[in-house]
Design a protein that fits this description.
A hairpin with a 2-residue loop joins strand 1 and strand 2. This protein has 23 helices and 16 strands. It has 502 residues and is of the alpha/beta class. The protein is 46% helix and 17% strand. The longest helix has 20 residues. It has a domain of 226 residues: 3-Layer(aba) Sandwich (Rossmann fold). Helix 1 packs across helix 7, helix 3 packs across helix 4 and helix 3 packs across helix 12.
Length: 502
């Protein structure tokens, strides 16, 4: 299995190099040249094994330069019951809303209580093995731009991992108080955290610029270092996300919720497009998926794109109660466009260049047709998000976070608009206690809001009786370690200084 850059087909690398490097030197993203195909017999084999077994098989098919022992080691160390609170790190919860059955895929039982743990607990193991295969002796410098959840999950995953250093940038006013405290109090000798004066798109653009600046790369090389990424632009981040869609399908069959071979819909609250792209890739491999429902908040650039074929980031940026989706440049969409354009690096590069220079692009009619056939785009605002949280809790006693509520709301829109009752898996991406203020306002709007984040957590727990995840409860007395703030155009100076490079 080899990988190409989305913007230069002539750049061909192994899976280990794709993971170690993170992003192509030309700024493109690495994509597999082909996808393994699972027929009915192959899919049936997944029914009879657990999450780890499913992960090992899928990883082996994509990481052909890893040995069976290496893959087993990565999986066994990543998906432990101790880290995820049970043998299945991605369990399904079942409830009803009005006349709609909800199959909620809970992806937040890991150590940072967000879906990013599903990939970022295994990425450090994949990366360190990849470094030994491709850049033996070098230290990896992990640069991360985060809208909240990726940052903490990456920090926790790479904490004190040998031969790695990690620097995380987040928008100073663009994450929840809990997310901020998770990052600013992070332990580890190899970690750095810095806020930026801007939004997530500014942070993401700044990180990509650092990655692709030859002078900076040369300085790292002279100091026996190289850049890599823990964002979903790294193939080692995206690949593990394919696993939980395959696993969820198998669990639904085993639970008697669907018949084997029956199609499902997948609903994903979407910001950077990686999570929903993973489900699209699973469909290419043979998973019976009917429709991919892309749920956005008021930053509805993806909704408009799916409906019109025009991607236009030249619009108002909203700071919402679902901050991990406050994104106007969805990086992983580039991978989808590459695939839908017939693996055309020329088209992909043209569109990405147009996005950088004009802030917009329009895809071909052929690509528009495939997107409209496979995807549905919808969005909801904060008021609708809170109403959905309230309704789901009042009718089912099920408490969800603000991002999951966006997905539930858009799923309702989809069913009402199309009448399609195909069973759906809804990705639940974070614990409600990561956004306790907004969730408390939703379930108990008459309650006076406490002054501090942890008092708010306690009040939400008192009202809902839903247990507070131990990793969040344990943050209460942790001291802040990082208070740095930098301007966007000074991010590269911050990186070099943090690494001790002049």
């Amino acid at each position: 299995m080899l990988y190409n850059s989305t913007q230069n087909k002539n750049e061909v690398v192994s899976s280990a190099q794709a993971i170690a490097q993170g992003i192509s030197k030309d700024g493109g993203l690495f994509v597999p040249q082909e996808f393994p195909q699972y027929d009915e017999a192959a899919l049936k084999l997944f029914l009879n094994t657990d999450y780890k077994g499913r992960a090992k098989k899928i990883f082996a098919d994509f990481l052909s330069d890893f040995t069976e022992e290496e893959i087993n080691d990565c999986v066994e160390k990543a998906y432990t019951a101790q880290k995820f609170g049970g043998e299945n790190p991605a369990p399904l919860a079942f409830c009803n809303l009005d006349d709609k059955a909800l199959n909620i895929l809970e992806l937040w039982h890991g150590p940072t209580c967000a879906f990013k743990d599903m990939a970022l607990q295994i990425l450090p193991h994949l990366l360190t093995k990849s470094l030994k295969k491709t850049y033996d002796g070098k230290d990896a410098v992990i640069l991360v731009a985060t809208s909240g959840d990726t940052g903490k999950a990456a920090l926790e995953g790479f904490k004190d991992v040998d031969h790695t250093k990690i620097i995380v940038f987040y928008p100073v006013n663009g994450v929840s108080p809990m997310q901020k405290h998770q990052m600013d109090s992070q332990e580890g000798q190899n970690v750095k955290v810095c806020a930026i004066e801007g939004n997530f798109d500014d942070a993401q653009t700044g990180v990509k610029r650092i990655f692709t600046t030859p002078e900076i790369a040369k300085k790292l090389e002279d100091n026996n270092m190289l850049f890599s990424s823990a964002n979903s632009i790294n193939w080692g981040r995206l690949l593990p996300q394919i696993v939980y869609y395959v696993s969820a399908y198998c669990d639904m069959v085993n639970e008697g919720k669907i018949n084997f071979g029956e199609k499902i819909n997948v609903v994903v609250p979407t910001g950077n497009f990686g999570n929903i792209l993973a489900s699209y890739y699973a469909s290419l491999m043979g998973l019976p998926i009917n429709k991919l429902i892309c749920a956005s908040n008021s930053n509805n650039v993806l909704t408009d794109f799916i409906r019109t074929g025009v991607y236009d980031k030249n619009r108002h940026f909203y700071t919402t109660m679902s901050p991990s989706m406050d994104i106007l440049v969805s990086s992983n969409l580039e991978r989808l466009l590459y695939k839908l354009s017939g693996n055309s690096d020329a088209f992909t590069k043209e569109w990405m260049t147009s996005l950088k220079t004009t802030g917009k692009y329009e895809v071909t009619d052929e690509v528009k047709a495939v997107i409209k056939d496979k995807f549905f785009g919808g969005f909801c605002d904060d008021e609708q998000t809170q109403a959905t949280i309230n309704k789901l809790f009042k009718e089912n006693g099920y408490l969800c976070d603000t991002h999951t509520a966006v997905a539930v709301n858009v799923y309702e829109q989809y069913v009402n608009e199309t009448g399609d009752k195909t069973p759906a898996v809804i990705a639940s991406t974070a614990s409600p206690y990561k956004f306790s203020r907004s969730v408390l306002q939703a379930v108990a709007p008459e309650t006076e809001l406490p002054n501090t984040e942890f008092d708010t957590v306690d009040k939400l727990n008192e009202i809902t009786k839903m247990p507070v995840p131990a990793p969040l409860a344990g943050l209460k007395d942790k001291k802040v370690r990082f208070t740095d703030v930098t301007e966007v155009d000074k991010m590269q100076n911050y990186v070099l200084s943090a690494l001790g490079i002049e």
